[in-house]
Structure formats: C-alpha cells, structure tokens
Amino acid sequence: MAPRLLVDGAILQQEAYIMLKEAFGECFGQLSRVRNPPTLVSCAMGAQVSTVTEIQNEDAPFGLFQPITREDAYLVILQMAQLRSFDVLVAGRSVGHESMEAGAVRIVYLADEIVVRASGPLHLLIFYIPRRLLKDMADRHGNTGFDVLQCPWGQSFSDPIIHGLGQCLLPALRNFSRLQQPFVDYILMSLRSHLIGRFSGAAVPASVSIRGLTTWQERRAKDLMASHVQEGVSVAHLAQACHISPSGLVRGFKRNTGLTPYQWFLSLRINLAMDLMEDDARSLADVALQSGFADQSHFSRVFKEKVGISPGAWRSRSARLFAAETTDTPSDREDQAAPLST
C-alpha cells in the first residue's frame, strides 16, 4: 500500500502528493523559465489543493511569462528580492507596471487572461489558492457573505504578514521532509485566513472604497457594457469581471463617472439607436430591437426621457440638419473655412 499523508484533515496518497507537487512546480517553472522550482502542496478539507512555489533565477533577462491558464483561483505573488520591473496584464491591459521592492505583494485572479512581464533577477514566491477554498473557509467561520477578494488586483502593496509567512516557508521549500507537512498546512491555512480577514470587504482598500474604481476596473466595466449593448449585461457579471462586489461596483462607477452602470448602459443604447436611425430604411421598431430595447414603445419612452424628444422627431430634425449641411453654397463653405479674425 502506498504511504499516505494526513494533510489538513484530508488523506492524500504519497504518489498523488508527488504528482501534484511536480505538476505545479513544472507549471510555474515553465511560466517563469525556471527548471523544476521547489513547490509545497497542502490539501484542505474536500481535497482542494493550495500550493506555494519558489521561483529564483539570478540570470533571468526581461521576459514575458506565458499566459496563465484561466481558472477560478488566485495567485498571491510575494517578491523576495527587489525586481527592476514587474508588470501584470489582465485581458491584454496593464494594471500595474512598476519596480517591486522585497516584501511587495500582488494578487491576480486567474479567471481573466493573465500575463506577467518581469525584468531582472527573479526571486519570488507564488501561492496558488482556489477561490472555492477561501469561500469554504469563510463559510465555516461564519463569514457567509464572502465571495471574492476585494483588493487592488495586479497592483503591488505591502503586507508584512504575507511576507512573514513566506519567509517561514523558505526552509521547507529548500529541504522538505514529510514531518514538516503539518507546519506547511498551518502556514498556508494562516495565509488563507489572513486574506479573508483583510480582503473580504470589511476593510476595502482605499483604491476601491474612497477613490472609486481603479482605472482598469472602470475601463473593464465600460468595455463589457459596450460589447453587450444589444443583449445586455448584469451588474453581477460586471462586478465579477472587476473582482468587486456588485454594490461596490455601482458606488465606485458612479463616483468615477457621475452615472450608475445602468445609466451609462442606457446612454450606450441611445447612442447606438441614433447611429441606426441615420439609415432611413430602418424602421423605428427595428432600431429598437437592434439597440437592445424590448420593443418600439419601450425605446420611444426611454429615448424621450433621456433626449427630450421622440425618436421620430429626432430623426426628422437630424435629416433636416443633414440636408442643410449638404446644400451649403461654395461661398458658405469658404466662409466657414476662413480663419477667425483677431
């Protein structure tokens, strides 16, 4: 019979432990171009796995880490030595390009397409933590409202507790024995508890609660709404994409733009309807459906409320203005092109 390990309340076969350790080590090693980096594995209740991998390469040039496979999990990246340049791209957009001091932390959510760029010698710890593992832990301790970590995604921040926990794991990473497994489990469990306590929403970072959404969150919400004008998109979906609670998204978006996401979304539909109405061959009923409204009556009611006149009246006025512009005399156009006198 294969030897077994009792890991945080779950029995894990030794062969399975080794396979998981090698799999995660190989995965993060390939991403960072480091061969066989040391990795520790902890299996919590329900056999959900969290890991920590040490990436160290003194000769690492500037490089682009490969895109990381999407899944419902977090990476907590702890910088163990100064790095000249570190950038996180979420869905192709940079969310934080800066140097990183020793002890700096970044958290990324793997549900998005994540790419990391780094310049200079590498020495960091990468903690892999499934979101469900945090959710289950929060539920067991009565924090049933916890859903996602509310933190400055991809941006560096200081956290002495995460740094200290990482330092504690270095000896086990470099010379692991099975007798150290309970210690590893305890440290990784402490990290999960700390993340829930700091980023569960009880103390949301200032970048979200005071200054509104971060630049990338606002851009992500706007882009999602623009790409779903016809079919619509829920606040819950926008919040999930921005890694923030729905109420936090609404408050932050209004603080940034002066409008709620719903008001912004309606303005996108109105603008689309105006573009469509420039085609005289389109009926107002067709314009209503193509711009995402339930029917012509709904479209007309919202349009008049927002613009002040009915769609038909707006179309007629727009046509008259266009006709006037196209019938200008040559002298009119020359006068309009002439520079203003001073």
UniProtKB/TrEMBL annotation:
A Pfam family reported for this protein in Swiss-Prot or TrEMBL: HTH_18
Keywords: DNA-binding, Transcription, Transcription regulation
InterPro entries the UniProt entry points to: AraC_XylS_family_regulators (IPR050204), Homeodomain-like_sf (IPR009057), HTH_AraC (IPR018060), HTH_AraC-typ_CS (IPR018062), Tscrpt_reg_AraC-type_HTH (IPR020449)
Domain annotation HTH araC/xylS-type: ranges: 219-317
Sections of the chain in a coiled coil: none
Superkingdom classification of source: Bacteria
Molecular function via GO: DNA-binding transcription factor activity; sequence-specific DNA binding
Protein name, entry field: AraC family transcriptional regulator
Organism of this sequence: Dyella psychrodurans
